Amino acid sequence: MRTRNRRLRIVVFVLGVCLAAQSVSGVAAPTTPAMSGDEPDPGFNQFVSPAGVSVDRAGRIYVADSGNNRIVRMDDMTGAGWTALGHRGAGVNEFCYPAGIFVDGAGRIYVADECNHRVVRMNDMTGAGWTALGNRGTGVNQFVGPQSVVLDAAGRIYVAGLRPYPSGSDQYPILGGSASPPP
Fold it and tell me: pTM for the whole thing?
């Protein structure tokens, strides 16, 4: 079930104590439902169902803006430097409910593109170097609604989806194979 949340909230906890909280909120309510295929809030400072967040080495914030079928980068929580990439679709620079986002140490952006059942990697917010991997399925390099994506220190890509993978196994997927959970 999708929520209609229009706010990104960053909360900093240290040892269970809230040290800071700040929000970036959409100003206007969408006029078109997100499920219609139209872009409900395609403007600056407008989120519909933000689903994932990552921060790069420079402190810029990246958001998987699921309901708007795009990713957004901001310099900080004021929304300065707002840059958006994507719209609904299955091609280059297109997403269908991006759910997770991760920025690696080199600044490459990885997106778990939920309804396209793929993981996308790009070099920057222009979409340069766009590389898509995956399709719907339960085999190697296949996904069922990927929800999040992260990389480990060795550069292995880990993807979490809507279903256990593979069914009944204690293995979890990485691109190109599977691995046992860490101890």
Answer: 0.72
